[in-house]
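Example A, followed by Example B.
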Amino acid sequence: MSGSNKTGLISRRALIGSTLAGFNLAALGSARTASTASGEKPAKLLVLGDNASWKGTILQDAIPAFTKDTGIDVEYVQLPMEALVVRCRAEMSGQGPTSFDIVQMGSSMVGWMHPYVEDHKSLLSAAAGQHASDFDISDFAPRTLDAVSVDGKLCGIPYRATVYILHYQKELLKAAGFAGAPATFAEFRAAAEALTRRGAPYRYGVGTCGRQGPAISNHFCPFLLSNGGSFYDLKTRTILIDTEEAIDALEYYGDLMTKHRVMPPEAVTWEWDEIIANGQNDRYAMSVTLNASGTPLNKSKGSKTAGRWDWAVVPGSQRPEESKSPFFVWSFAVPSASRNKGWAFEFIQHITSKEWARRSMEKGNASARLSVLTDPDIVETYGWTAAAAAQMKTAQANPNDAHWGSLELDLRAGISSTLQGQTTARVALRAVADSWRRKFDRLKL
């Protein structure tokens, strides 16, 4: 099938193509009676989200099932992240109703989006659809609910919860003389160098996302946090990105590319799709990347490295217990200006229900439901869930405020310049800190 592989893991291009084509699925089955709390049934619901490729189950399976059950067409419009934010800000802060009924909301968007979405606790209490009785909000990991809440207001329903973990080809590591996964920065670099030597000229020790886009700062963050670094204090606005801990972390990370040459040089062009595709094609032996990437790497029939991967928490700087990761939650929310709040929430309950949360793991999702993550069959099937659960204990969310999106753009530029050898880590992060100070002064924060 064009745009997909035999396991159903579809490419971003295929997802975008399906979005542009739209979904006209009313003919798939008869509609049931509308629930009393949902209001007048619309002909179509519009979902607005980003163009990342983890929504295969939603697009290919859950939406057709919802349409068959309700008779409501669903269109999922996917945009690049920056375009998504711009459109959301413009429509949700306006005077009229939004053109979309449901919005996909990242945890870093909650800081500015929360005034413009419904309190989902109220929506839960009024829900009367087929999932209302057994939805079980307590089944969601508490940290995921915290990540999408502001001052007691539940701003969305979690769908995807990710941390960064170490993915490694265990037999390659063993053949290079390492009994287990590297647990410190020094061990990680030594393993990366040995793996690069043994894999030359094609396979490198480490893969990463180095393009100056949405993935670059997230892939640096495990090294920043595990070295005791941070961004800034949310309350005092004290900037921490140019501390010695942060500078040392970026110097270590940049040296992997420019000095030790254990990363493929073209990794400076990689983002989410490329880190998976190149792992599947055996371009690297280790990567600190998203937990859910383990599914397409290790389970896809199109992966040349399927069955070879194992997982551990990310290395700590000096000691294993220093291991930390960024923590992200994607949720779905009903805008306060949505025309179809009741039915919009029923759709959210549908895709985040226990049934669809479990099935979403097949196509690269990382469910936020505890019953899924702890299911023995899931643990055995996917492998990476145990490492992700251990990593979650020390994971930290990126700053959850209205200005993080703008500030992160500066950080992307600083990391990129270091990975490409254009500036030192110290110069890069001092430039980031200076830009942040100017923005805080301008915003009077």
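Example B, a separate protein, is given below in the same form.
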Amino acid sequence: MTSAPRVRFAPSPTGYLHIGGARTALMNYLQARRYGGTFIVRMEDTDRVRSTQESVQAILDGLEWLGIDWDEGPGKEGPHAPYFQTQRLDTYREHSQRLLAEGKAYRCYCTRQDLEAQREAAEKAGAFYKYPGTCRELKGPPEGRREEEAVIRFKMPSTEGTVSFDDKALGVITKPYSDLDDWVMLRADGIPLYNFGCVIDDHLMDITLVARGQEHVNSTFPQLMLYMALGWKPPEFAHLPLILGPDREKLSKRKHPEADVMLHKRTGILPEALNNFIIRLGWSHGNDEVISREQMKEWFDFSGVGTTSGVWNPEKLLWLNQQWMKELPEATVAERLVPFLEAKGFQVKGDSRLVPLVHALKERSRTLEEMATTASLYFRSGVTLDEKAAAKHLTGDSLGLLRKVRDGIAALPEWTVEALDGVVKSVSESSSVGMGKVAQPVRVAITGNTTSPGIGETLLLAGRDEALRRIDAALSRGA
């Protein structure tokens, strides 16, 4: 790439950041960062019912959580502001007037009923419907219609011809003029339709590359015709493969809750893992699976984007999340664990056991929620014993071994994993029994069951006072 790219992410705010949108944003962001370019966020907020302030904020919150920061856009006003289409209506009106004056667009007075009748007639004739140009040569409004009620349509060339582009992911794609109709650019209320608004904005914001989902391939052709009519050089295009749900249907929030980026934050997925997962749904770098943000910036290019739809694999996401829980600094994971423990009613901010907890649990936890559920055991008062485990490990000689451990750990001047393990080992040796015979009664007393991290870690995580209380409660069973 010879010059610094200007790329954009232009979502329609509908209440949440879609996984597909997040992938588009990430790929554009990486392209800008790799080549020293500019990443712009622009809101195509022309759906006035769904594009509320809350919907806009949901998009921004999702991008911020994923660490996809923008150079220009909402909250970062730049030279091409404003970045909301509803604040740029005069610009669209100005360009539509230019096209009208040059005879490259016209006002269309057809009503919804007119268009439906035309469509039905085409269907009955077994023909593909496209607008027949009813109003194309009108010099003024028909009787009973007013100019302010008209939409503005782009006038396709009446000559034979083709329009094509070389997609950076799909290669050369061509379409004849005859496949395109005189499409609506501007509604009667001055709201631009997608193909018009995005072209005007992309040109005025100096966008050099447009990357978006494959569902927009057909939109590219009318947009290229508009660039041609305005005498503007179009950007490059890259169309990204679809993302399918586990059922092999296009990922949508209606059918697939996982389409909502912030659902994954709530369920304990790390942003590093989700970024890693979504970038691999359509792009690859050899056999690399766990890919850091810095590696993405170094490696990513649209030439590596595939053409095959990516399929959502929840088990793969959980696997990646576990890798990142082990990869990130334990203090970072501990900080992110705090809200999940607080949601369970524990005030743990600043608790010295958080980092040791992450160290002890990261090998067996796939999400922060799973880790918090396991960690809850060490923050609550008391424990519920599994009766089968208690019947096996908290009776007879086992209670005698537990008593010796209790006395030994109570006398420790320092409560460390090494010292606690040392007490258990000493009781094992002095009693001429295996470590398991000593450790299991302690483990059941502290956790209620027979599985936990190492016994020294388990005692440390429970804390001196709580560990002794739980052991005393277990010993009382034999009293």
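On Example B: The chain has a mean pLDDT of 94.
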